[in-house]
Design goal:
Blueprint: H1 19-29, H2 32-44, H3 46-62, H4 67-80, H5 87-105, H6 112-127, H7 129-157
Helix pairs in contact: 3-4, 3-6, 4-5, 5-6, 5-7, 6-7
Amino acid sequence: MPKRAQIIPPDAYPPLMRKAEAAAIARRLRSPQTAERGARAIAAQGESLRQAVGALVDELEKAGRDDAGIAQVAHEIRGLGENAGLAAAGHIADGLCRYFDAVERLGLGADPAIVELHVRAILHAARHEDEAGRMGDTVAKELAALVSHKLTEINTLLGG
């Protein structure tokens, strides 16, 4: 006979460290020195992060109309973009991920035109860093406005 799962309340677990130790570690993590060391570590990995985003962008381009594949790659670009120095690509990918999440909650498929606009914008932002820096936030905001408008239309049609 299979064993039944036993739920243990979080307070029943012994603490990993004393409260004073936890407070000291939290202070150290928030210190300017720790933030500076973290920034240096990310900067040192900048080129390899850009290469990783470049490989993801190539995957995104090859994904065609595979929304699941596009969503997965966009999620990765969203996570790496800013640290790779490709903030515009990351912000646009974030908007695409939010769009996929919203249509999934509604039980609908994604509009191919909206997906294509996002994908093309991500490709452009990742491959043309000089332009992306100037125009990336504007493009991300305009795409977000388009998505918002489209979702409002859908909700109106669905009576919600």
